[in-house]
Every structure is written in C-alpha cells, then in structure tokens.
Amino acid sequence: MKPLDLHVFDASAIGLSGLCLLHCLALPVLAAFLPVFAAWAEAEWVHLLWVVLAVPLAGVALWRSHRSRRLPRALWMLAIAGLGALAAGACGWPREAWETPATVAGSAMLAGAHVWNWARRHRHAGA
C-alpha cells in the first residue's frame, strides 16, 4: 500500500474527529440562537452515527499502518480509549451529564492517535 493511501485514512479520521468536536462544542451554542439547530444538538442518532463512522475508519487507518510498521502499544491504547469514550458518550453512559465531556475527550484522543500515527509515518518515510 502506498503511503498516500494511509495518509488519506488518517486525514479522514482526523477530519471526522474535528467534525465531532464542532458538533459537540458549536452546535449547542447555535441551538440557543436558531431553533432548527436545537433538534440536531439533541438528536441521539447523530451521536451514534459518529461512532458508526469512527470505528471502521479508525480501525482501517491504524490496522493498515500497523501492517506496514508495527505501531506502539501506547498509540493503540490511545485510539481504543478514544473510541471507547466516543461510544460511552454516544450512549450516555454512565450518565447523560457526561455525554459531552466523554465525546469531546474521546474525539481528542482519537484525533491525537491519528496525528501521532501520521507523524510516525512521516518520520519513518524520511529516514
């Protein structure tokens, strides 16, 4: 697999994490001003959609990178923790009040794992 193909997966995953952060942080503010956005801010299907998109995208990006160069265990742990926090936030577990903090933390961890992966690949490609 060409390095460009792997970069596309990481870039897509980072972009998805950014959209998730935007949804979690900006949409509630917009909902205060425009009632149309209120439905999106509270729609549970949107949260589940993020998780359904994030899990396979992150999995493919990291697994393909792992096959070409073994990834550090800490990178895997960061990605799995991020996906777990995203899933917990989407399900409102353990409490609904933790939904936004869990989702934001999970999105940040997952994006961090992809940035780390991208940087590792870039560093190894130049070596």
From TrEMBL:
GO cellular component, one term: membrane
GO MF terms, alphabetically ordered: mercury ion transmembrane transporter activity
One Pfam family hit: MerC
Keywords noted in UniProt: Membrane, Transmembrane, Transmembrane helix
InterPro entries, sorted: Mercury-R_MerC (IPR004891)
Residues that span the membrane, as ranges: 12-39, 45-63, 75-95, 101-119
Protein name from the UniProt record: MerC mercury resistance protein
Originating species: Vulcaniibacterium tengchongense
